């Protein structure tokens, strides 16, 4: 149904600037992305999440925006964007944009006026203090790189607030004019045909900042306002929030208090992602089991978005110190692999040592978790990172289409970002063209996996629960179950490299293999008394309902 399309979607995240260059100027563009839509459709993506497409000085990956109503000239025109929407629509794919409205660039005309003219009509678009705030050096998003959250503006003799860098001043959500402007920005893109938005830094958008406090209160009602405003324009519009907040706060993003998700429909599940990282690192299912048991019951039509990597760091900030230490040791032992004291700035393939079997198991685990999976471009071929680039830029390198010059991304000698140079993950070793010809490649595994996923509606819409295996079961095996209207599926994942077997006879006598690294094949009957798993093995078993 249109109003629930996101619950069985596969979201593919990309930056237009680094995906495909059509005119060989070294920068990816909208025409290039449009030319690659058939590739994405074949892969199994049903929704494209585009990182900022707006004009920007580019000091923060495009998140420092100077005009919310335009397209960055480096990637094309509004006409090119409209054609992308048209072509995506013809393939049954939706387009979701980053909505970046907690701050603007300091070069935005609003801030230029506000920071130089005492009588500027845009003065109250931002958050100011007449005196130096006592919490000036608290609440940084990028600790170790960023030193303050309040900066002095010489032109007006006042301090302005910025949760992010000093060149990204925060907008004042308490100003009704700002609220109306945000609604207008979102409605503009929906009118063009955008299916929804990923709301960047969602807690900071609605933060009510005070000069004497490091952390303000939050006006979550703004998301009710935004949802209502957009729903009149497009009934199936999606709002997906980036909000790494405590469990007791999460439901406030979904609902104003009723049984319906009347605010934001989807929230990234940072808790499940962090737990998956701990379980993968320790080769022990306990962390994911605990996270699954703790997942809050969502309002009707609410949904989680699952991920293993995104365009930022692997954020481990919510983990206990011992768990964070274990993940760092396993996947980012070199200080240069870490960032902000809380995260890992690597792609998943090198984090797992390039172990193909372990990589498949990890993505099988992600796809089996409750919610809608989000993939980052290049995940499907096992791309690596470039640690020579600063901070998050390490994982924002050009897409590797082929092994030739420019990796098939561009024929220019001057690329917007350098290609990965690590020998094991360089374009001549990891690229789409080679994997397209190899039926045993990771790319073709992803295609099969994503199409199987689309047949298992229970994952996106069902109720998930941990399957108790008993005291004698290996701790490396995670077993959980999705119960849905069309049937039940059990998912098994062996997080260790040693073979294991589990007894599922409490669930019945037999099941049907939907997917597996170690099974007898799709559609085969499986005896549940002893289900075998190889090292880093996985199996999806349908207990009832339609065959997968």
Q: Could you characterize the architecture of this molecule?
A:
The protein folds into 3 domains: 2-101 and 175-377 and 443-452, Glycosidases (TIM Barrel), CATH 3.20.20; 109-161, Oligo-1,6-glucosidase, domain 2; 463-545, Golgi alpha-mannosidase II (Immunoglobulin-like). The chain is globular. The protein starts with 10 loop residues before the first strand and ends with a strand. Strand 5 (150-153) and strand 6 (158-161) form a beta hairpin. The chain is built from 16 helices and 24 strands. 27% of the residues lie in helices and 18% in strands.
Features:
GH, alpha/beta, globular, O16G_dom_2, 548 residues, transferase activity, Immunoglobulin-like, transferase, 18% strand, Oligo-1,6-glucosidase, domain 2
- Counted by DSSP, the helix tally is 16
pLDDT averaged residue by residue: 94
Main beta-sheet strand count, sense and barrel state:
8 strands, parallel, barrel
Content-based structural category: alpha/beta
Q: Give the distance, in angstroms, between the N- and C-terminal Cα atoms.
A: 21 Å
User: Cα-atom Rg, whole angstroms?
Assistant: 23 Å
Regarding CATH, which class of the largest domain?
A: Alpha Beta
Shape designation = globular
Strands, total number: 24
CATH topology of the largest domain: TIM Barrel
Unreliable stretches? none
> What is the number of domains?
3
Strand percentage lies at 15-25%
InterPro entries: GH, GH13_cat_dom, Glyco_hydro_b, O16G_dom_2, SupH-like_C
GO molecular function: transferase activity
Organism: Motilibacter rhizosphaerae
Protein name: Maltose alpha-D-glucosyltransferase/alpha-amylase
